[in-house]
Task: structure prediction
Amino acid sequence: MQVIAKTININGIVQGVGFRPFIYQLAQKYYLSGEVANTAMGVSIYVEGLEKDIDSFCSDIVSKKPPLAQITTIDIQPALVQNRNGFHIFPSQSADVRSTCIAPDASVCDACLHEFLDPNDRRYLYPFINCTNCGPRYTIIEDIPYDRPKTSMKHFLMCNACSSEYNNPGNRRFHAQPNACPLCGPYVTLYDSSQHPVSTDDPISHVRTLLKQGFIIAIKGIGGFHLAVDAENEDAVCRLREKKLRIEKPFALMSFSIEQIVNYAHVRDVDKQALLTVQRPIVLLSKKENSTISKHVAPNTSFWGVMLAYTPIHVLLTQPPLIALVMTSGNLSEEPIVISNDEAFSRLSPIADFFMIHNRDIYVRTDDSIVRHMGNDCRVIRRSRGYVPTPILLKHKLPHVLACGAELKNTICLTKDECAFLSQHIGDIEHYETYVFFQNTIQHMQRILDIQPRIIAYDLHPNYLSTQYALEQDKMVKIGIQHHHAHIVSCMAENQVDGPVIGLAFDGTGYGTDGHIWGGEILIGEYDRFIRFGHLAYTPMIGGNAAIKSPWRMAISYLYDVFGHGIDLPFLKSINSQEIGFAKRMREKKINTPLTSSLGRLFDGVASMIGLRNHVTFEGQAAIELEMIAKDHCTSRYEYSWSKDIPHVISISQLIEGIVQDLNSNVSASDISTKFHCTLIDMFADFCVHVRNQTGLNRVVLSGGVFQNAILFCGLINSLSLQGFEVITHRLVPVNDGGISLGQAVISAFIAKTLV
Ligand code: ZN
Ligand code: ZN
Ligand code: FE
Result:
């Protein structure tokens, strides 16, 4: 049989993830000779052997790759046979041989966990055990090339045993940059709130006891500090809320195993899969009634946010009899999560009773990611630890672009070729510290991804700090992008779908091209342009942003539109009558009453109108509670209609009239909420049919934060699919403003192309 040869070039995350040893073993399996080497873009392989063996080798590369490897492209070419002897791993020599694709952080793998719990292993209970398949990556990188001296492991000199693992191509720890052991690696120490070391042989066991006693512990993790308490301890949970100034926003939970989680939450097979992925995100799970978890962990919602222990430290901390720990980000209110030991002592000492720290520095702040399984797929709601910096793969090659994102839930995005690198969740950059984090993230990602953007994209909102940042940059082509256009294109890009599409962009706030605040938008969207085909009718936001914090102001505004002054509903009795009078006068005189077409505000207004809440303490709170009280099925709808000309204005006065009628006939809040949701589903599905009749378009893209509402999201998918639409949705990219930067980047690249 004839011997042939091939060269295989692979791009993607293939360095520092055990890829070359994997190739080496695969070559042995198929009796191939040749070599594998790192290149600037990934790895290059030369193999010779029988054709059928080379074919199997190539298909195994894709199907059996190591868990952290991500292949973006694989190029296989015939080559001349060189009659090699054996297969070799070519050492990488120079600094210019480097990949700019870096792996995300990964939860401790089974092999490491096994050693960790084996009393005879030299790393028995060593909290920093890791290998090429697991451990920190993105969070410890200072610069490229990704090599130990460019990580926070540079301070630790490997002992002989670790070093021989590190240099042995057959070893699981070959080139595992964070490789360490108790002799040579980082270690954990425990301090009390006055920064005195606590004398203990076993800090982690000691912390377990302290947790059981109800103390608040600041714990250094992979991407930052957590604040932890025993989730069954009501007093501890309440004390944490008070000290953290976090009144009602749900806390995340962490448990050791699925068996522990089923004590307090319903875990479907799909949830189990999500919990067990190597990213170990927070998964939203339905609560079980009468569990022992404190109700103050997540008040007024039917979900817990739960993650499995993902570092060896967490594994020890969450052992029974503890069922779950509250593990909330180590910060005060909306500030960025704390990453350094000094910062922890200075900023978290008013909150934490003890500090469990270690001496491996975190260079890059990365929050826990959040996912939810809904509409037959797992959806990333907050994309951070475990996902970043894995690129989103695009259909089109793009130039180097920097997109600055929006204001709340900010992320930034950098593009290069067919890769879009979405940053980790940065947060609300209206806070100064978060804005600094935003700037640092831009610098850091440009450096480690080797991207020098000449195009910068920003939101049209003139007051966003991200916009101001973009406008301050020199020597860049600056392109302003409409917020909802960015939402739709972010979903198109993620799904590698070209326009034109029917785009439903529903959210709380986005600056419109007419200077009003949009948020209930039906667009005809393409990569470089859009038409506003329809939108919800404009309503004044009484007091501007104050109406976001106080949904009763929206309720009054919607009611005023329909009924003028003469309306009296029970919810009004719970608001100061002077304030109501003042609000009505502002509305009449049009003082500080920007117009909005936002669907998010409509949810808020309806929630207030039916007596759910007049004030919110976090974004989306009223809308979430409105969703929580709705039932699965309904039979009735409110009326709706839209105007003739484009953009069609979708009237909501019949809806408001109907709700008031129901309130006057003592229909329950739950029934009104159900009917409200069903009306929206029918209304938007009907509108899409109308758009299809007018334009012939059959593809509908759903994006914007309002689609975190499962009833609306799943209801629209069902209804649109039944009517023959192809429905495109987010999975990897957040549906909320965390996805905006991706849309901005793609749009600006396409606009720049037509500019050239
Ligand atoms: Zn491992
Ligand atoms: Zn060692
Ligand atoms: Fe938005």
